[in-house]
């Protein structure tokens, strides 16, 4: 099948590569000529495990191409995915200008009936706006579908190739058949996981899913704060409630707050859409407020144990990305932490396996970027762990103990056993756990 993916960012690039992997002829489009040139050289601008070799393999096999020529891509393709960004506006609403610009381009360049699919995360009602924008430019018939993505950064290839479910909002029988054919290779192993529904329900499903996961995170972070006050261990509580099949264990890990490109933006957009409809989603407003407060918890711990004035103090920081297996620092809890440490006068020594370049665009030379975790810990008055990379799971703590100036360990991800850390001579402070 001939497929065009308009927008070669995170979602578009993963989708395009995976569709090509299953034998489709895919054209990925982006207006950024430099990005397209890099992709044509198999230089993937984002870090996502397994993505770069997939892009290279499918370009070599002529199933995947990259271009800035949106008109040619539209004319050659039967199915056109809109996967451009929907950044939050000042009021939190999703900015649809890029989506609707692409929709108008589709209408202008359409040479035969097409299936236009919104892949970007968009609020309910967007498909109808896309339909109107395309229709204003052409008299050729077309169908519009909503196909939200449910990709976890760091596991996007597996999520796409072996999805829990594929949600397709559709109101056209032929489009339903084509979308089912396109996704069949990804859903053969586990039965029918393509969920066809009306378009509005598909659009709501994406926001509702992310809002639910964000709610679980904020709930556990509140429970963690309560555990600290009463002397309980949130890890035990997590295991206790997660064993209930009605609750499950996923997204019950307390930490420094959620970040990334999806949860913060989508929660804000759902709140804004609801407000516009006259319905106040008070639960989600609380989720957002809790998360903003949680992003300051690790900083508050550092100031509590080191003092409000950190002049002359060195802070070792392990992890910059908002989660492991990605270089994404969008809305990362590390950003307000570093800003707060610097404002208090500290020198910050950082390490991250993949996010250093992303951090440089934010902090420049205001922090030190270490080549390895131990260099970041050297001479530190406190070592803070903010991202759950595997390299931080079981380091040589005896070596770390000799490198730091003060053995103060603030574990923002609860990676370590408090008793073991105490036995190794560290002053340990986790999230929702008794200090040691």
CATH homologous superfamily assignment of the largest domain = NAD(P)-binding Rossmann-like Domain
Relative strand content: 5-15%
Structural class: alpha/beta
> Over all CA atoms, what is the radius of gyration?
23 Å
Number of H/I helices: 18
Query: What's the number of extended β-strand segments?
Result: 14
Largest sheet: 6 strands, parallel
Record the SSE blueprint.
Blueprint: E1 2-6, H1 10-21, E2 25-29, H2 33-40, H3 51-60, E3 64-67, H4 70-76, E4 79-82, H5 97-109, E5 114-118, H6 126-135, E6 142-146, H7 156-161, E7 166-169, H8 173-187, E8 194-197, H9 199-230, H10 234-242, H11 263-276, H12 282-294, H13 297-306, E9 314-318, H14 334-343, E10 347-351, H15 356-363, E11 368-369, H16 373-377, E12 382-385, H17 397-403, E13 408-411, H18 418-423, E14 427-429
Parallel strand pairs: 1-2, 1-4, 2-3, 4-5, 5-6, 7-8, 9-10, 9-12, 10-11, 12-13, 13-14
Structure, explained:
This protein is of the alpha/beta class and 436 residues long. It has 3 domains: 196 residues, 3-Layer(aba) Sandwich (Rossmann fold); 88 residues, 3-Layer(aba) Sandwich (Rossmann fold); 135 residues, Rossmann fold (3-Layer(aba) Sandwich). Helices cover 45% and strands 14% of the residues. It contains 18 helices and 14 strands. It has a 6-stranded parallel β-sheet, with helices on both faces. Strand 4, helix 5 and strand 5 form a beta-alpha-beta unit. Helix 1 crosses helix 3, helix 4 crosses helix 5 and helix 9 packs across helix 12. The longest helix is centred in the middle third of the chain and has 32 residues. The chain is globular. The mean pLDDT is 95.
């Amino acid at each position: 099948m001939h497929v065009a993916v308009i927008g070669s960012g995170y979602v578009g690039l993963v989708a395009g590569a995976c569709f090509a992997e299953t034998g489709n002829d895919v054209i990925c489009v982006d207006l950024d000529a430099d990005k397209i040139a890099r992709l044509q050289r198999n230089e993937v601008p984002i870090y996502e495990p397994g993505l770069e070799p997939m892009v290279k393999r499918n370009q070599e096999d002529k199933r995947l191409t990259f271009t800035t020529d949106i008109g040619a891509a539209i004319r050659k393709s039967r199915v056109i995915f809109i996967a451009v960004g929907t950044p939050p506006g000042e009021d939190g609403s999703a900015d649809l200008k890029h989506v609707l610009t692409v929709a108008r381009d589709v209408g202008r360049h359409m040479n035969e009936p097409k299936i236009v699919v919104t892949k970007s995360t968009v609020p309910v009602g967007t498909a109808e706006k896309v339909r109107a924008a395309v229709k204003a430019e052409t008299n050729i018939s077309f169908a519009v579908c909503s196909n939200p993505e449910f990709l976890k950064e760091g596991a996007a290839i597996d999520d796409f190739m072996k999805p829990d479910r594929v949600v397709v909002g559709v109101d056209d029988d032929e489009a339903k058949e084509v979308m089912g054919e396109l996704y069949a290779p990804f859903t053969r192993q586990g039965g029918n996981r393509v969920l066809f529904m009306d378009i509005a329900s598909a659009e709501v499903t994406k926001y509702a899913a992310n809002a639910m996961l964000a709610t679980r995170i904020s709930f556990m972070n509140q429970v963690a704060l309560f555990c600290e006050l009463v002397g309980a261990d949130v890890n035990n509580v997590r295991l206790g409630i997660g064993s209930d099949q009605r609750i499950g264990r996923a997204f019950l890990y307390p930490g420094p707050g959620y970040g990334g490109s999806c949860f913060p933006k989508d929660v804000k957009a759902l709140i804004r859409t609801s407000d516009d409809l006259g319905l106040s989603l008070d639960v989600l407003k609380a989720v957002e407020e809790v998360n903003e407060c949680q992003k300051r918890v690790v900083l508050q711990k550092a100031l509590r144990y080191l003092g409000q004035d950190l002049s002359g103090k060195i802070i070792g920081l392990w992890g910059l990305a908002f989660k492991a297996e990605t270089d994404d620092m969008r809305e990362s809890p590390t950003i307000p932490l570093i800003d707060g440490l610097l404002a208090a006068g500290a020198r910050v020594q950082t390490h991250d396996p993949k996010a250093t370049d992303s951090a440089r665009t934010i902090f420049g030379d205001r922090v030190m970027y270490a080549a390895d975790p131990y260099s970041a810990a050297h001479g530190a008055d406190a070592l803070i762990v903010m991202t759950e990379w595997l390299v931080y799971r079981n380091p040589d703590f005896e070596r770390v103990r000799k490198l730091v100036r003060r053995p103060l360990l603030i574990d923002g991800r609860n990676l370590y056993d408090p008793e073991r850390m105490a036995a190794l001579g560290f002053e340990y402070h986790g999230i929702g756990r008794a200090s040691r």
